[in-house]
Amino acid sequence: KLAEREREVVFDLKSYMLAKAKAVNAALDEAVPLRYPEKIHASMRYSLLAGGKRVRPALCIAACELVGGSEEEAMPTACAMEMVHTMSLIHDDLPCMDNDDLRRGQPTNHIAFGEDTAVLAGDALLSLAFEHIAGASKKVSADRIVRVIAELGKAIGSEGLVAGQVVDIASEGDSSVGLETLEYVHIHKTALLLEASVVSGALVGGASDEEVEKLRQYARSVGLLFQVVDDILDVTKSSEQLGKTAGKDLLTDKATYPKLLGLERSKEFANELVRKAKEQLSSFDQQKAAPLLGLADFIAYRQN
Ligand code: GRG
């Protein structure tokens, strides 16, 4: 307990996150210049530079630094994770998927640029992510770059993010969806990209196989935690807004942790996941592990 409190005093996560977000934003800005054809690049930049917590790049850089690598080595890979995250949001918002008009308080990409451009901006960001890892990671050995490319490809393809989205769409409106399907969707839609961010950061930082494995386990817990907390926030935020006890997700057909487990047990599950995530970091230098320990808390106790 005392050691934990000391760490909180010496490590300022908020400043760490702000500094990493600033560096990532500058690198993303540079990675997608507004060149010909302007409309597609404007559309890519619109969503890529529209704010966002930059959790995936922060995890990537923190994992790289933990195993002895630098921010510079991690940056192209960190940016690639955000490019993929952004393209998944653009496509998720399309009329053929979630049909959302707003994202981060702004009109969604297809509302601002049209559906055709939004689809293509997503495609271009996906392609750029891999090009960027391969081309911009000058200080990282070729074999490690190949491992990162394979890791990311697997995490987001038809057995990864895409699989999560497919199962999510198929279970829409199905009131019999249980915990197993809910967990499948969350692990695939959300946790696998967080896992790829951490593992890829570790790989470009020169991690041993044993270190990669521990960080993978950390990321698995943190990834699921991210979505459990998202579900909890959906209930608590909309309760506040509505001034009622039932949040919006309790009023819809969508399966969520609070709906299937209840709010209290969902919170207990979230606490258990934070504990499990941190346990995986116990063999690392605790001073150096402070950012990843802090990021687990940030994901668990965030308000949006
Ligand atoms: C990746 C090839 C490929 C296709 C995409 C559309 C689709 C397939 C998948 C949907 C994935 C999706 C929307 C997952 C939800 C992820 C999630 C938890 C988003 C919110 O993340 P935050 O809170 O958002 O990090 P900010 O705004 O902070 O970046």
Describe this structure in words.
With 304 residues, the protein is mainly alpha-helical. The chain has a single domain, classed as Orthogonal Bundle (Farnesyl Diphosphate Synthase), CATH 1.10.600. The protein has 15 helices and two strands. It has a two-stranded antiparallel sheet. The protein is globular, with a radius of gyration of 19 Å. The two termini are 27 Å apart. Geranylgeranyl diphosphate binds next to helix 5, helix 9 and helix 10. The site of geranylgeranyl diphosphate (GRG) has 18 residues, from helix 5, helix 9 and helix 10.
Question: Would you kindly provide a brief summary of this structure?
Answer:
The chain is mostly helical.
Which helices and strands, and how do they pair?
Blueprint: H1 2-10, H2 13-31, H3 38-48, H4 55-66, H5 71-93, E1 102-103, E2 106-107, H6 109-113, H7 115-136, H8 142-156, H9 161-170, H10 179-204, H11 209-242, H12 248-251, H13 257-261, H14 263-279, H15 290-301
Antiparallel strand pairs: 1-2
Helix pairs in contact: 2-4, 2-5, 3-7, 4-5, 4-10, 5-7, 5-10, 8-10, 9-10, 10-11, 11-14, 11-15, 14-15
The chain binds geranylgeranyl diphosphate.
